[in-house]
Amino acid sequence: MAKILVKQVTSKINCPLTQKRTLEALGLRKMGQVVEHDASPAILGMVNKVKHLVSVVEAK
To answer: Which of 30, 33, 34, 35 might form a disulfide with 7, Cβ 3.0–4.6 angstroms?
Structure first.
């Protein structure tokens, strides 16, 4: 399965609670943090929900 790197680029201040919890579920605790995940449909759905707060790059 393909891997993706998810980086938080924007603050979660003033975001709805559901988006804050989605970032926590992705493992993102602070700005600039990068985590690696499998590109499963569940993870891609979470990334899509907070796409304005994160950047996504395909891992090599």
So the answer is: 34
Burial of 22 (0-12, 13-18, 19+ CB in 10 A): buried
Give the chain's mean pLDDT: 97
Query: What six digits make up the tokens of 22?
Result: 């989605």
d(CA 50, CA 1): 22
Handedness of CA 46, 49, 52, 57 (dihedral sign): positive
pLDDT band at 60 (very low <50, low <70, confident <90, very high): confident
Domains of the chain by start residue, with CATH:
3-58 (3.30.1390.20)
